[in-house]
């Protein structure tokens, strides 16, 4: 009977070690991804030219999701160390706290990513904001500042008006040279709302993908932590029975 118990106890100890060190490795990966997410979101927020465009177009709501992801990436960097320590110490209370932080992290990451996508993708809340700003610039394109903004956007992005060249006709404004392709001389067909949205999508696509990868790691770490807690409790019960 003693031999059977010893073999079972040894097997449980090996399982605990396997889960513990796997969880440790996942936390190291989570820390790396959190650091990368923090770096990318701060870079996006601090990029001078990009920030200027959003100010001009009055579309700074774009940054709400960025702020959420910056905050959660900082929290997740700290939490990853908690996960490493709680796993190595096999402390059930610390592991339960860690599970709670992973659930919070997952919810925050999904929320932040959803908000960021809501202000950076096609058919999102970003497009009406861009449409209002661009149509205002088109309607006042005879003024120097409006003409400067439209020229900067249309030449750099390769677009015309808010929805297309017909915006100038609707608002009774002459079609500027910045609306035309320098090679063919034809007016750009796509409006600047769609072109700018695709431009913003390119900026945020990698950030959202990285954030969702971190969210997946949160789920994996939470499940593994819970499994480790149950295994540690079972080991403690077996040790207590053995002493009796």
From TrEMBL:
It is found in: Membrane. Disulfide bonds join 159-192, 160-179. GO terms for biological process: glial cell migration; smooth septate junction assembly. Its main location: membrane. One of its GO terms (cellular component) is smooth septate junction. Keywords: Disulfide bond, Membrane, Transmembrane, Transmembrane helix. It is a multi-pass membrane protein. The chain crosses the membrane at residues 21-44, 64-88, 95-119, 206-229. InterPro entries: Tetraspanin/Peripherin, Tetraspanin_animals, Tetraspanin_EC2_sf. It comes from the Eukaryota. Belongs to the tetraspanin (TM4SF) family. This is Tetraspanin. It comes from Drosophila ananassae (Fruit fly). The lineage of its organism: Eukaryota, Metazoa, Ecdysozoa, Arthropoda, Hexapoda. The gene is Dana\GF21009.
């Amino acid at each position: 009977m003693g031999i059977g118990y010893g073999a079972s106890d040894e097997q449980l100890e090996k399982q605990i070690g396997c889960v513990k060190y796997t969880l440790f490795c996942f936390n190291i990966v989570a820390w790396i991804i959190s650091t990368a997410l923090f770096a990318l979101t701060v870079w996006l927020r601090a990029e001078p030219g990009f920030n200027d465009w959003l100010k001009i177009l009055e579309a700074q709501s774009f940054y709400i999701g960025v702020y959420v992801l910056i905050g959660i990436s900082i929290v997740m960097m700290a939490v990853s160390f908690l996960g490493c320590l709680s796993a190595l110490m096999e402390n059930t209370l610390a592991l339960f706290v860690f599970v709670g932080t992973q659930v919070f992290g997952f919810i925050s990451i999904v929320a932040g990513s959803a908000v960021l996508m809501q202000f950076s993708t096609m058919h999102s809340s970003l497009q009406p904001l861009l449409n209002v700003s661009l149509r205002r610039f088109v309607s006042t394109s005879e003024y120097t500042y409006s003409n400067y903004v439209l020229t900067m956007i249309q030449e750099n992005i390769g677009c015309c008006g808010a929805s297309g060249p017909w915006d100038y006709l609707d608002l009774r404004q002459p079609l500027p040279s910045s609306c035309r392709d320098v090679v063919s001389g034809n007016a750009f067909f796509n409006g600047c709302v769609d072109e700018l949205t695709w431009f913003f999508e390119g900026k945020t696509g990698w950030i959202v993908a990285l954030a969702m990868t971190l969210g997946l790691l949160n789920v994996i770490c939470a499940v593994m932590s819970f499994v480790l807690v149950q295994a540690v409790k079972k080991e403690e019960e077996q040790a207590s029975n053995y002493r009796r």
